[in-house]
Amino acid sequence: MKAIVYKPGELPVYADFPDPVVTNSNELLMRVKAVAVKNLDKAKVSGKHYSSATDNGLRVAGSDGVGLLADGTRVYAFGKDGMLAEHAVVEKSHIVRVPGGLSDAIAAALPNAIMGSALALRYRANMQAGDTVLINGATGFTGKMAVQLARDYGAKKVIVTGRNEKILQSLLQLGADEIVSLKQGDDSFVQALKRMHADTPIDVILDYVWGHSVELILSVLKGKGTFSQRTRLVTIGAMSGDTIQLSSQILRSVDLQISGSGLGSWSGEEVGKLFSEIIPEAFELAANNKLVVDTFEVDFVNSAKLWQEESPNGKRMVVVIP
Length: 322
Prior knowledge:
Blueprint (H helix, E strand, L loop, with lengths): L1 E5 L6 E4 L10 E11 L1 H8 L12 E2 L3 E5 L5 E6 L7 E11 L6 H12 L2 H7 L7 E5 L4 H12 L4 E6 L2 H6 L7 E4 L4 H14 L4 E4 L4 H10 L9 E5 L12 H6 L2 E5 L7 H20 L7 E5 L16 E5 L2
Parallel strand pairs: 8-9, 8-11, 9-10, 11-12, 12-13, 14-15
Antiparallel strand pairs: 1-2, 1-4, 3-5, 3-7, 3-15, 5-6, 6-7
Helix pairs in contact: 2-9, 6-7
């Protein structure tokens, strides 16, 4: 079969690869139709993601996608050994039926963003209706989804940050109430958030960038020895760097919970609900035009050449396989 294959640390290529083989009763063979190319996939190919394989063997790129089972059922699934190929082996426990009216491209692009937003909101942040939510780095594909889901889950107020001014403005139409540019100076950024935090205390912070902006946000939360607002900060990405400096005084002066949401951090029960409840709910919202999902499609043969391209305007690249 044809596939997009790579060795960790090298760019992927379009090439022949052995057909996958079903090895047990919990596995199914799927004819792949669409695969979204995500930051996770790019990090795995580069060998820089913590879940990257340690050997240098040739492997198939892509982690999940949409396709057809032998009986014609259209499903979203995780691939056992890569997904950017004509066929993939998937596990029965990790598939979700795709509703009619939802395109292959949207169905392929949506779940990873749901993992990077819904699981953080529901399980790590324990978001409640009426909470004020700050989304740091909201201009990417997953950040856009987080804005919409926070509003759908009943957020009282949604504050967003980002560098792309055009996308920041567009988030006001997706459910954001306040926008704060990361391109402004540190002092003005901090003062803007301090005003918002004083007006409506921030309950939940979803962070997609980490680095210096999180240091500034934590400085906003720092208390003065009086009773403080309880804030839950969940880190999901690290586009601005993998480390921060964290003052002990911040941790001692405010009721602050810091946790992460990503591969390996979720319990088996949470992953089960992801496939049985959360992704199906998101599919129905998208099918009924209640979620805006921005994608752009590329053809299978040329997709490897576009691997390092930045997605325009926060859209998600989806490889379509004929």
